Description:
Number of strands: 0
Largest sheet: none
Shape: globular
Amino acid sequence: xxxxGFLLLTEQERNAKFKAALHTKTRGGLTGDEIQEILHVxxxxxxxxxxxxx
Length: 54
């Protein structure tokens, strides 16, 4: 999704996409609390590159 399209989403929609990306990139390795903590620290109105080392 392009940045402009992402910014048109509601905050809830952006958070849902961010949660899904974190879940996918970590292959389900993060708990719900860990994902919530990441969302609290990183605002969902910016684009991030997610790299996970396993």
